[in-house]
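Bug: token stream looks shifted between consecutive jobs. Job 1:
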Amino acid sequence: MNNVGYRKHSIFGAEISLICPGAPNVILSPRETWRDDLAFYKQANELTLMFQINFEKFKDKSSDDIMQGSPHPNNKYLN
């Protein structure tokens, strides 16, 4: 989309549009769709760690750029 702002997701690194015509802004922020921030970040961290474990089997076939694009847990919410 042109002429809209983006922000980078703190865990997954994806660039997320700040606005999308015709869509409620709340759905543009995964965290805002949860009532409990702690529960969201715990689940997001769990998904991140699962991704990292799974991706280990592909690291020898992937470039550094790909590996650097992996999600990173939010340390504030690690168990």
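Job 2, same session, no restart:
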Amino acid sequence: MGGRRYIYCPNCGARNEVENNFCAMCGAPLREVARRVLAAKPSTPQPKPAPRIPPHVQQTLSPGMLVHLFYDKYFKTGSSFRADMAVAATLYALEAEGYVALTPSKRGRIRKHDTVEIRKLREFDPGRFGYLSKPIHKLRVGRGINVYDLVKKAGRKCEYPISRLMELIVENDLTKETWSFLYKEKVRKVKRSLLDRLLLVPGEYRSIEERKRNIRLYEPQAKRLSQLVKRRMEAYPEMHRLIVRECSKALEDLKYVPPEY
């Protein structure tokens, strides 16, 4: 930065402009002090290094995990949910690298339903593509599985299958170190009365918060994936609608409603 430069009198400590030959306060000579100051190069602040992903955590995240973290910003559409887009993004990422082929197909022995078949073309590392790719990885090359069966295998029968599927993605696709890098657990202790203790009311509540600054380090990956998803949606809109519909149907069939007593 430019601006006026100053020197300080060695005799009384008063601040003077660098052009002054004598101190304005005590009259002491300042020519030698000014010469040294002008000869010295002004210090320039060093730019802060750009934040980087530390080496002890995962350098890349699975497509499902990227959708989970950046759904609202890059992947949200009016016709799909987080789990649907996580499945679609995983399939498109596998297809883009030539590991699978996606083709319209039918499922069901008696009543036929439109679906999308995922045919495995060659072996791949499921660690790169995450939890949702594991049922495909288990197939032999040349064999296939439809989207409905894929989601049924990856999901769990429970009261909230959509939330549970996303939990499974987080649990399986992140190492402990990466989880701690992206999230933090907060514990809030509460006072309990004697009655609360008798009723086994918990004395603490735990919540999970995202570390927004660390999550933003993975944003370039999410942006690239969203561009791939968008291109695929625009090129094959009907197939994308089939994938979303089959995901929704499978998750609906996984929903378990506990009986009322």
